[in-house]
Amino acid sequence: MTQEKSMAMLESILFTTSEPISLESMQKIMKLRKDSIEKMLKALEEKYASPESGITLSNIGGYKLVVKDQFVENVSSLTPHSDLSRGLLRVLSIIAYHEPINQSDIVKVVGNRTYDYVKELEQRGLIKTEKKSRTKVLVTTPHFEEYFGAKKHEIKKEFEESVEDNKPGDNAAGQ
Fold first, then answer.
1. Which of 4, 35, 151, 172 could serve as a FRET partner for 157 with CA atoms 20 to 30 Å apart?
2. pTM confidence score
3. What confidence tens digit (pLDDT) does each residue in 9-18 have?
4. 3 state DSSP class of 144
């Protein structure tokens, strides 16, 4: 396979995958050496770093082509997860903010719908569950960061700042 065809195939793999793909998986699919794929990944990273590109190469738990941060809001309604209900978002935000958190603790706040929400969030790959005694421990996955286009700690910091900014008495109207 020529260098151009290999590059095109790698780009196709990164574009089509719904989950980040490992270097090892790319090696198996393309039947190329690790160093060859790493060189091509570097070239793609440079290609998509240009301001003319609307996508970038993500390396969060594997590789995948993703929309650049400045365009996510404009195109998010086109993604398969744009249908996250308020309930799903509420449970996901509780998990992200307090992780690791027991499912039983969320049930106390949200109610029995929590079980359905957790099941759906796990199916979508946004959270991971681990059985612990009579409950489950819930944490977000690398796909969560990729979906929202930010690292967990950045999302949590932004949320904390938002809460601080909206406290009663902190603004002129509230005094």
1. 172
2. 0.52
3. 999 999 888 7
4. helix
